[in-house]
Amino acid sequence: MLRLVVLISGGGSNLRALLERCDDADFPAHVVAVGADRDAGGLVHADEFGVPSFLVPFPQYETREAWGEALVEAVRVWAPDVVILSGLMRLLPPAAVDALRPGLINTHPAYLPEFPGAHAVRDALEAGATETGASVIVVDHGTDSGPILARERVPVLPDDSEATLHDRIKPVERRLLADVIQGIAEGRIELEAAA
Q1: Among 3, 9, 14, which residue's Cα sits nearest to residue 51?
Q2: Which of 114, 119, 167, 173: disulfide with 134, CB 3.0–4.6 Å?
Q3: pLDDT (average), residues 99-112
Q4: Residues 6+ apart with CB under 8 A from 46
C-alpha cells in the first residue's frame, strides 16, 4: 500500500477526487497527510476524510529555501512513498525537489511539453489550440519540464472559455493521476527510471 502526501494551495478538488479513490478497498494507496503553504480551502477535504493535515506558511520564512527546508521536514514526518503536488501554486526550491525525488509528482492541465506554467488553460486558448490535454510528471528543477509519466489529449471546443475547458480537463487529470499511482504501486511505473 503506497503512502501518499498531497500538497495543495487552493480548493483541493483534485485532492478530494484522490481521497475518494483511496476509499476504494481495491486501490493500492492511501493519503497519510495533506500539507499546504497557506490556510487552503482544500484542507476541509482532509478533515472530512479523517486525514491529518499540516501547514508550512510561506510568509513565515525569510527565504524560499528556508520554506522548502521546513516543508521537506514536515513531509518526511509521514514517510511517504510518493508526494503529489496537487494545485500547490508555489515552485519548490531545488534542494526540496532533490530531497523528495524521485517520488515527487505533479499534475498539469496541458499536454506537456505544450503550455507549461501556471496559466496553461488560458495559454492554450490564447494560442488558438484545437486541443490541449492533461499530464502527470515527475517534478524536476524546471517549470513543468520533468519526465512525463502519463498524458492525454483533450479537445478545445469553439465556444470554450477558460472555465469550461478546465472543467473538461480536470476529470482526465484526476484519472491519469490515479492510473499513475496504481502503476507505481503495481511496479509498472518505476519512478527511479523515469527520473
Answers
A1: 3
A2: 173
A3: 96
A4: 12, 15, 19, 31, 33, 34, 52, 53
Residues contacting 80, CB < 8 A, separation 6+: 3, 4, 5, 32, 33, 103
Supply angle C-alpha 115, 119, 124, rounded to 5: 45
142 is in an annotated binding site: no
By three-state DSSP, how is residue 135 classified?
strand
Identified catalytic residue from 45, 108, 141, 166: 108
Residue 14 marked in a binding site: yes
Q: Has 108 been annotated as catalytic?
A: yes
46-88 pLDDT, tens per residue?
999 999 999 999 999 999 999 999 999 999 999 999 999 998 9
The domains located in the chain, with CATH, are: 1-100 (3.40.50.170), 107-136+149-190 (3.40.50.170)
Cell of 111: 499536454
Q: Tell me: is residue 91 an annotated ligand-binding position.
A: yes
pLDDT at 5 over 90: yes
pTM score > 0.85 for this model? yes
